[in-house]
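Weekly sync, protein design subgroup
Attendees: M.S., D.O., the rotation student, P.L. (late)

Item 1: inverse folding check
M.S. brought a backbone from last month's batch and wanted to see whether the design step gives back something sensible before we order anything. D.O. pointed out we never logged the input encoding, so this time it goes straight into the notes. Structure tokens as presented (91 positions):
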């Protein structure tokens, strides 16, 4: 059988490890790293899904017609900016 002194020593070690794990700095660091990795996961997932959608739409034939229509519309109705430059005085 295991004697009581060994059990008490092991319980002290366990309590000490729990105190270290539950320190406020450790919890704050863990929460910060969880937030960073969650945000990176969302960004990575969004990029993968967007790339997949763009790839699929680029393979369809009607999207080329839509892109051409949008380009024609923007060229037709976009305001043309004209900047007049003053002429230098002639001697």
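Designed sequence read out in the meeting:
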């Amino acid at each position: 059988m295991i004697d009581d002194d060994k059990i008490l020593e092991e319980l002290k070690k366990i309590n000490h490890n729990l105190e270290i794990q539950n320190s406020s700095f450790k919890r704050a660091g863990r929460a910060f790293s969880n937030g960073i990795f969650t945000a990176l996961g969302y960004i990575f997932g969004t990029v993968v899904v967007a790339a997949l959608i763009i790839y699929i739409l680029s393979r369809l034939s009607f999207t080329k017609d839509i892109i051409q229509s949008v380009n024609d519309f923007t060229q037709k109705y976009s305001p043309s900016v004209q900047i007049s430059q003053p002429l230098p005085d002639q001697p």
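Discussion: Residues 4-60 form one domain. The two ends are 114 Å apart (CA to CA).
Action: P.L. to compare against the previous round before Friday.
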